[in-house]
Amino acid sequence: MIPMPQVLKRRSSWPSSFVTALIGWNGFATIAALAFGRAALLPRLLATATACAIVQVLALRARLRFVRRPDGLVGGAFAGAVSALLLAVVAMAALPELARDRVITLLVAVYIGAPVGVFLSYFRRDDARIETVALAQGRRVDYGRDAHWLDPFAYGAAAYLVVFAPGAAWLGLTAAIVGAMVGVVAAGVSHFFLARFGNAPITIPIAAVAGMPLGAMTGWLLRAGAPIAVSETVRGVMAGALCFAITAAVGRRLAVRERAGAT
Residue ranges of the domains in the chain? Predict the structure, then answer.
């Protein structure tokens, strides 16, 4: 597990909101650029995506601030999609290359913005639930496994850097971003599926196998990032398996710790 500042353990904090949006915008912008053969656009695209992430958080947090009742996930998705569409229009004006594929740009923006809106609403609601329960029981707030929500991004980035071992800094950044996005998928598998089996030891190799197909796809994507070896798909399989295995192993450790604390 990775030591994390206290403010980032609270998923609904301002810094956490910015991190959520920055990961979403830069992660999916990178994947879209690689998928549609626009890798050369990445340096300027990531700068634009970063600006969009910051502005969207300010807009969505302002909206959440004035919502009188607990905000639903549908409302969060709608607000995220609308704000992302508006930001995409500005982004196309700032980066004319995006306007050449206007429909794709708008669809990718919605695909990014809606989940960001959902996560900000969900984090706010779920953190409030945890804090309310802690207050009612007269104990300090403990976010448990949710406090480690950022760890999978780091595991994914590290796994991809180790496997691809890039010689160029820019390819390293691209591999790390793609790996971080794979990490969050691995976390979802661990949290929503492997947890049903008590995060038993056998789930670790199962998770590794589950990560292979996704890893192969990302390896295919990264072939556009720079001239790397012909075995990029094989490397992707290895990176995906390693990422999922690490995440599952950490998930097991957290589950064991939680069960020990409950007894």
Answer: 6-143, 150-262
